[in-house]
Amino acid sequence: MKRILLAVALCFFCGSCLGQSACTLSEHTEYNKKIKEYTTEPFFITELVDHLPLSTCVPAPDAFLHHIVGAPDVLDYTKDINAYMRLLASKSPRVKVFSIGTSEEGREMLAVIVTDEANMAELNRYKEINARLADPRGLSEAEAQKLIAEDKPIYWADGSIHSPETGAPEMLMELAYRLAVEETPFIQKIRKDSIVMITPIVEVDGHDRMVDVYLQHKKHPDDQPYPLVWWGHYVAHDNNRDNLGVNLALSRNMLKNFLDWHPTVMHDLHESVPYLYIMTGTGPYNAWLDPIVISEWQEMAYHEIEEMTKRGVIGVWTHGFYDGWAPNYLLSIANNHNAIGRFYETFGNGGADTRVRTLRPPDTNREWYRPNPPLSKVKWSARNNINMQESAILFGMNNLASNGQKFLNNFYLKSKRSIEKARNEGPAAWVFPANDPRTGEQASILNLLELQGVEVHRTEKEIRLPATATEARRESPRGQRKAGEDDAAQKKPQETVIPAGSYVIRMDQPYSRLADMVLDTQYYSPRDPRSYDDTGWTLGALRNVKTMRIADTAVLDAPMKKMAKIELAGGIDGQGKVYLINHNADNTLATLRFRLANTQMEAAEDSFEADGVKFKPGSFVIRNTNRDELDKAARELGVKVHASNVDLKVATHPLAAPRIALVHNWQNTQNDGWYRIAFEDLKIPYTYVADTRLRETSNLREKFDVIILPPMGQGGAAGLSAMIRGLPLRGKAMPWKNSDETPNFSASGLDTTDDIRGGLGYSGLSNLEQFVRDGGLLMAAQTSAALPVAGGMTDMVNVSDARTMQAPGSVVLSSVDDKKSPIAYGYDDKLYLYFRQGPIITVGLNLPGAGGGGPGGGGEEGRSSGRGSPSDPDVIQGRPYMTPERPVKRTPREQELFVPEEVREFARWAIPRNDEQPRVILRFAPEKELLLSGMITSALTAWK
What we know:
Number of domains: 4
Helix content: 25-40%
Radius of gyration: 31 Å
CATH superfamily of the largest domain: Zn peptidases
Strand order of the largest sheet: 3-4-6-5-7-10-8-9
Shape: globular
CATH topology of the largest domain: Aminopeptidase
Strand content: 15-25%
Distance between the termini: 94 Å
CATH architecture of the largest domain: 3-Layer(aba) Sandwich
């Protein structure tokens, strides 16, 4: 009997059986004292966060962490933050914790739900209602309104997608505790009339490395500080640019959790500008978003700004930081799925330091959108950051709870209007035609859309529509042909024919706006404010996949079947000992080659025909191999192989499976991470090599066949200098290895070294040059092209910055210039490319009067100064007029290699032999035909 009474008593005091109302609260005197001590000014705090209650049954953060949230000089690891959240859930019936997935390195990402006990008991019901409102097809208006009245809105806050931004994970622990235990009417309103969801850390791998870097420097303040080499396992700041590709584990986990719960608001917490920027954007806003959500951004932001300003908090502003155009951010998960995506930027110190910060204009300028600007000098602390974030987001959460029915109704309306899009603003559908030769890339992009929640259907028979059913798209500007079209395709069709087996993305579905947004073309006016990010992203063009924009709603009535994940049919057909694979530029061909690395393969150097089947240049030729092994690989990869006994006459060359080195430096691994993802997705083996290792390895050719330099740093001579120098050789050696002080520096797939200083060095440059001389292939991308060019490894290749051009991430047209190059195998004559600002690469001798074509090719030689217009002949005075010779018309290639005779006489030594001259594989289209999506200005001026 005593044992039973004791159990009941314990249950009463812990609140886990009878509800948390059994707990008692008091003032947490010591915690509150520290809040005030660590807050540097009274205008960096509000009454919402100037205290924290002490619960008798739910442990406050300091009881677990041994410091208050926002304490100076301390940061917490993922395992400790996650453990505290689980501790809250074990002690409070108002808190629930579950995993939303793991990172590349195995760390757990959490979702923490905080709401009152009644709502917690109905979580599954609210989840069902949100899913129904997200897809209201077949739902009557009365039924929808009944569900809205029953529902509770969800506010999902997430922290630290960017590893150096360390304040939010700390703040979110205090926020979860406060929401769980505080009994003020303000907090009770949030708990009762909404559901708060918290993901304390998005980039869990990088967060732990950031804590290592920070705490190591605090212990050794006189040593040279470490850079944060890997913000995450793969990429750095651009992990917040992965919403369209969904390559990273964090992106997949966050997307899946969103589609499971359909939160009303998704709120990213960032750090950069002073003191608190609340996102609305300058515009232009994304043209595919429902105008309702743009109004919601404004309404929510100005509510929080007003509440903070009324309390005397300074430096809270909006508008002038971000534009709202690109759909590739983490918050775009919400905006692209009819919810509200938003973010804050608070002032951070790169850790938890307290120090004086000096600001300059424009940060301190008073503007219409910043009437109460930051100070020019302030003592800033981690606790200030906590106060600003937590106060503002509490106002936002209370706003959602107080107006939940309105925001839920808006969510329903946005979903409903997306379904009506096909018959309202259009288009009716997007079609991926069955006759696209690139079936692998087609399936890849369709599966990516399905991952985002977009429905994909497949036609059961051929569909014929009027010619006007397909709207004229600017796939090629100025009415130019589409990539891959022949002359017959340029003739005006009598009707639109959609082959049987084509894939259809219907625009009468909940996520029609997302599909339309990523498949259509984009135009960003040069008159608009400077873009914050990419301006063009047409996925079909970027993936070299054909798409059709269908305006006629009759396509929706055609018989079609909804698809699950698209699996391609592959394998061997026919009989014989010669196996042929048509080269269609699908990436799966590379996967096949490396999967069967020990199988001898050849590439045809021209087109040919076998058994009535036409094969393109580059097609694989495999002789006398194990048929079962090849068939198994082809089936699993969806590659079609034709077996034949044909006696091939076409010339071939060996198709290697080379040993690849992918280079990184020790300052920034942002760009090489995307390369690593691509290689790993395609199952292409590679060795991850540091620039310092190249410096120390003289026999590179013995180890590698190909060395790839991803974009590293800036271009030009300054970029080469930075690559050679690397991290300065100051102080003592800086090992990058796991240790007691840095337990999270390295992980499987990353690199280690005894010293990260010194960069490539001149010896590394020399080793790379010798690698090339020994027959190795050096591939330098974008800014890294400065190394072989400025480093003296090339002839007739010039790299320059595009200072006069604006091209902030656009989709542009190019043409294949050298169709005999293996690089061009499988591609059509025209090809779309992603281009972001530069560098500009041209070919030509740097001699007076010598050729040199821009990316669009050389043109006529300009006339000299004199009478008349640019197209008129000059007239020399004092002698009879003579008609001038007509300018010589040269192809771009001829213009690049042209050297006038008078120059050739004194510079023969500078002219490479024909077999040593650079080959131009791709050439940008002329300026008037260049742009497909985004913005590009002054291209011709930049190239000249």
